Amino acid sequence: MLASKYYIRGDQEFKVPAHLNFGQYMIQCLRKTDKQVKALINGETGEETTYGEFLQTVADVAVSLTELGVGHGHTVAICSERNNKFVATTLAVICTGATYTPLDVGSGRSIVRHKFEITRPSYVICSKLFWEEYEEILRAFDCIKHYITFDEVLEDATPFRDLVNRNVDVDAFEAAEVNGAASAAMVLYSSGTTGPPKGVMLTHLNLLVSCNPTNFCDSSVKVLCNTGQWYHNYDSMGAFVCLSTGKTLVFVSRFAGEDVMLKTIEKYKVEMFLGVPVAILGLTKCPILDQFDLSSLKYIYSRSTYLHTNTIKELKKRLPKLKHVLIGYGMTEAGEPTSESRGPKGPKLGSVGTPSPGTIIKIVDVNTREPLGPHQTGEICVKGPALMKGYIGIPREQYLDEQGFLKTGDLGYYDDDRYVYILDRMKDVIKYMGFQVSPAELEAVLQQHDAVKEAGVVGRPDEEYGELPAAFVVKQPDSTVTEQELVNFVASEVSPYMQLRGGLKFVRALPRNERGKLLRRELKEMLNHA
Asked: Which Pfam families match (predicted)?
């Protein structure tokens, strides 16, 4: 019953609504913003949605879905590319008391089939593009009772336009009652970097905690830009935090091209850019960056995976008016356990900030599992009210320890001010002659070279030395650098045990998931064919 003195905690006294109903909370927040304020802007098409239109869509769709039979115990899959209707439809599903789950058009057949097998939705809301790509798979699942289409492609489906032509009284609208501490509002999916994605059940309470805007950076920020896809915790929660605080969210795909992204920031005078590290790294090497007026940009916010300090320094050189590059430590299973946006001493170079409200973190020795003190490296473990209800079909003892902490698999430490630092994934660390080599560190060194667009490092098995660091590199267009030149460059920058003794190979692209995370298991498979 005694907690370790080495636990570090976020604010344990922050408040959530007594009703523990995420849908109702969002409805109440939306009503507080002027109806004419822009809620969403599609940076690629220019389509705009005001807060009044957004709230009306949520109420209309929720009432219509309820009349179709959607409610407690049902799972509703939204299968579509991003559009202005996506987030409102997500919230409408949650307001019915049902569980929302997303599927990405670009997931691929095996992943779509796998996710449907996990959640077995009763209702599917899909776009024409998704239907044309996955019709065969959809028709194979007899659990699906009803189809709704954003575009009219099915004779036996309900057109989405029929759901929104209701003009429900938004002042009288209320979300269905739920048991917020236990009812799943969403099922999202783990990133799939270690194997097939797992279904992550998030309750209404989880969402309320994850979307708590307490001390969220700079209250003067009114326009944000997100390059994510809304199929993940980071993108979904980021959208809801923006909308719950009356801000304007401009969205654009990171795959749309650097020129589209930069034009969007310039046109809409974006003040905060939310992006994954691979997109932020791209900004530091972007040859057309100086052609755009980015003076409105105050903050860049990174989450998802490691962002090296060299990338931050280079970004500040290229964008001198930028106030801060903020980093959050996020995961589908536990929201955002730490963030620099809440750090009492502001951002610290290399850190991912301090614990978020309600969160408890411990760093444990990877062998003894004993909690460690400041500046001692171990596995980061997390618990608190943002921690998921669980993985679908997987026993809790497989991912929680005896005290109920999630074993994240991330190596890190915290300092005397309770700022957390991420070093690498435990499973990714390369073991060379008893030394532990961080792939992320080597990737950061390679990416300092002007000829390198991006890099991925893994260990090549070796009978004598254990593993040899090996690199895959995407060159900048028109670069003439050779593989040996880059090997020599790394050797000049690192300790002898970190050198690329496993070799270096040029590739056209690195394998990444839709969140931009590097798929190291695929890099290891590529070693066998190198």
From this structure: AMP-binding (PF00501), AMP-binding_C (PF13193)
